[in-house]
Amino acid sequence: MLIDLFVPCFIDQLYPDTAWNTIKLLENAGCQVNYNPNQTCCGQPLFNSGDIKHSQKLAAKFVVDFPYDRPIVTPSASCAAYIRNHYSKMVGSKDAQRLQQNTFELSDFLVNQLSKSDFGAVFPHKVTYHDACSALREYGLKDEPRQLLKNVSDIELIEMPKRDECCGFGGTFMIKYAPVSTAMTEQKVENALSSGAEYIVSSEASCLMNIQSYINEQKSAIKTIHLADILASNL
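Above: the chain sequence. Below: its structure as tokens.
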């Protein structure tokens, strides 16, 4: 199956290894991966900040960068949800419908489109999973990441208390309302620590960036890791 890979801004700039691991996973699952180097941001940060004019320009560019009627896979449910749910306001109905049908978050695509949930990964650690707000509420992602993690050898998945609460990132929320954001991140990390986990896992690099920055500042005994990085650990 030929698919197009969309690499979100945060992953492109801060977690490039996650993008490479996404390619490894898709190729291992039998996909031929096409990456268009002209791609840029999908426009979600601008849209969430109320800058409709420039988010429309990026949406129009996205249509040009991804013109084919085939799956578009991304290791970010928030970007996928944004394209699915909001491009209808910014691009023509034909393009919006095509992108809505073809855009998938990585774990959803692996489990539900390719029926692939075991990559022979080995990760001998205790982990807890963070449900990112957009992933859970806008995309509807919940069981797929956990299904993939349960097929990882030597891993122990422990659910944290209040696992579906926000980590405090929220895009520009963490900048505009820094004290509130920090308090939310503190609570998220404390809940993860109470589970006894060594790692916080998520499908959202932006959440992981926010959480890890707090962990670094507090010198907490826990780390963050993207789901794709665990799944590709033995590829």
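Strands lie at 2-5, 32-34, 72-74, 103-105, 126-129, 156-157, 199-202, 223-226.
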